[in-house]
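Example record

One chain of 305 residues, shown exactly as stored in the release files.
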Amino acid sequence: MKRSLLGFTLLCVGSLAPVSGCAEDDDGRTARANIGPSGGQISSHDGVLTVLILPGALETTHEFSVAPSDTPPHIFGPAYRVQPDVPLAVNAEVTYARRLPNDPTGTAVAAIRKDDFEAGTAAWIKLPTVELDVADQLVTATDSEVSLFYGLLEGDDISGTTSTTSATTDDSNDTDDASGETGSESGDDTSGPLSHDADIADIWANNCLGMGCHSPGQSAPDLETDPYTAIVGVMPLSAAVPYITAGDPQTSYLMHKLDATHALEANLGGCGCGGAGGPMPAGGELLDQSVRDRVRSWIEQGAPQ
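Predicted structure tokens for this chain:
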């Protein structure tokens, strides 16, 4: 596959300089590329992330690597580690090609700087967007350096991010972004105690019922009769982890269905559980990030009823 960015055509071998990034490590997940003063590019093994180094950005040649990572904080799309982090004389172009939210407003490529990560103060920094191509499902941004981690943020209401002009973590969810929930419940506070009956059950009622998927007698869990009993600690037919694992969102299949990561391997941000089918809600947009964060926090708190 190729994609056009600001006049450059990106192929597996860079159009600006020979690039070895198409040759991956034996595990098939780490891509490497030698890039020098004449420029070049490196893409992740799955083609989701591409970092384009322009001519004159580097003084010497470096061997770059890109690998998927679940180390940084959770975001909408899978995260990738890029090494080495080096300053650039000319901004790099960073492209993220993945299924965008149905409402892509505010979607942005984000980065975590190595110094922040090593200092224990890492937060996702929204990079300046230069192109949002909904037709080709990609976002392109610029970065003044090669950052340690890259990922994709959904909307402007993501907590735990900073802008490129602010060093203060923004933990607010003030932006009203109804990107995918019927009966929006954005802006919820997920820091306090949560329970299924008081804080989660309405999510299923407002978004998942009436579609014929979660009624009694269906293969999907019965979210109509007794949703708590139907999902907590219960194994699905199509995946190797429970719908909800109390205390662990990463091994909760339903959480991955809500995040649309259910079919991905663990190193790509998924559950690695052999998931199938589409994300939840079926046939609709993803729920607001704030709503999914509420489900995630409830699971982290032990999924109390």
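Notes: The chain has two domains: 3-163, 196-300.
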